Amino acid sequence: MGGGEAVLDLQKVCRGLTPAWFDYLRDWDRTLRGGNYPETTRYNYLLAGAQLGRYLIDNTEQLDAGEAAEDPTEVERGHVEEFQAWMVETRSAATALNKHKGLQQFFKWLTKEEDLERSPLDRVKQPKTPQTLIPILGDDETAKLLATCKDKDFLSVRDEAIIRVFYNTGARLSEVAGLQLDDIDLNSDILLFHGKGMKDRRVRFGAKAGRTLSKYLRARGRRRFADSPALWLPAKGQVPLSSNGIKIMLRRRGELAGVPNVHAHRWRHNFAHEWKLAGGDTGDLMLVLGWASDDMPRRYGASAAAERAQQVHARLRIGERI
Q1: How many domains does the chain have?
Q2: Confidence of residue 1 (pLDDT cuts 50, 70, 90)
Q3: What is the mean pLDDT of residues 81-110?
């Protein structure tokens, strides 16, 4: 995983499962590795299978799932539907949807292995997730966050650079966390992001982000572990700053600035909003943000469109002219 996250531990993921469940998940992981799936994808897929197995073990009598709890080839449609309902109740609809997609791939693999004639997921509907409008993180709030980074210490310099990269490029959290030293080109003002599906893309950054990155690189060069290939160094030690570490940093900066709910994806929504507000082309936006599906501009554009509609409404002054 990028950003110094732990290597996938199959034994830990499959803890508490029967030998048959473990063997199938281990063999599936071998297929995923052979297909060069990213480690984060493998982890999420395997975790979905392991969680279903443990759920069936814990609820064997209630679900009459004795054979399914022992062997994934005995799982039936009703078992999966009960598992999804439990996920919705105890986690969220979005988490249940994530598990559904992982299980689809697992049972699809079992059918290809000819250990199943038909996947129990074939007639299981995806959990419906509510569409929520994620508020953008615009100029005023970003300025407050940057104001907390005005000290000259290493962490202030580093955190300002990270915030400006998010603000300036709309990149994903995992992409920013996974940046390497070689991914920065200060001559051309370009960052090389390693996106989802192992798709790389080059994105330019502006003058302010460039100055901040240059300042960070100078401070970084004086650190003990400056020879690390990872871009973002921690306050102490040599393990690079992970995605989770950046999450914690953003939350802490938000608390200092009095800005609630600070997370990286809000800048991604803001980037899409600013792009469309300026009349930018949707196809170009997809290239810059690393989107392969036409659904993504619509999803990310929902909150931005609502913001633009409010601006138009205010300008038209409907209902205020008499």
Answers
A1: 2
A2: very low
A3: 96
Within 8 A by CB and 6+ apart from 146, the residues are 160, 163, 164
- DSSP label at residue 126: P
Q: Is residue 295 part of a domain?
A: no
Q: What CA–CA distances, in Å, run from 280 to 5, 218, 273, 274, 288?
A: 36, 35, 10, 9, 11
The residue range of the domain holding 91 is: 2-112
The two tokens of residue 198 are 């192992």
Mean pLDDT within 232-237:
93
CATH code for the domain in which residue 207 is found: 1.10.443.10
93 & 11 share domain: yes
Domain co-membership, 79 together with 152: no
Average the pLDDT over 310-320 and give the result.
Answer: 69
Q: Which of 77, 95, 112 is the last residue of a domain?
A: 112
Retrieve residue 124's tokens. 């299981």
Element (H, E) at 172: none
Tally of CB atoms within 10 A around 147: 12
Which of 65, 85, 83, 84 is closest to 75 using CA atoms? 65
Structure tokens at 269: 């929504």
